[in-house]
User: What shape does this take?
Amino acid sequence: MAVYTVYVPDFGRRTPLSDAEKYAALPDAVFVREGFSRAAFFLGPFWLAWHRLWGFLLVWFALLFLLVVEAPKVFGSATIFWIALLLEILLGLEGNSLRRGELARRGFRLTDVAAGLRRTDAERSYFRRALTAIPPPSPPLKITDAPRPPMAPPPSGEVVGLFPHPGDAR
Assistant: This one.
């Protein structure tokens, strides 16, 4: 069973979100899987670019440059291979942690932990819990639902309109 941490934007606030803000944040929920990331292991720089981890992508290219240009002067090819493999394993182990840190820097807040056999199961359980915990926003009032002010009785003896006196010729 996979475990996911769920992050939603906190709208730049550090106070609890109102019900309307919680509803507004639900479509932007981000699910980050706990544990080893096979995609980060096999597709390192592409995975970093896909998740917009630009600072780590620059570090990745700097390390790659060092391995390709400088390491052959000091190490043999087998040692360079093992160093590259260890860097890939490190990215696979820590990739999701890097992603969680970047989400926190971008203003996302950890709201829940969801579990499921697949990601869709975890999403379904999270949204089911979130939607039952948050009362739905009240619908806007219709004009017919608005309370009406009491009507004043018409003044006696006067006619409102084009004929100011009752009984005048038309």
Notes: The chain has six helices and three strands.
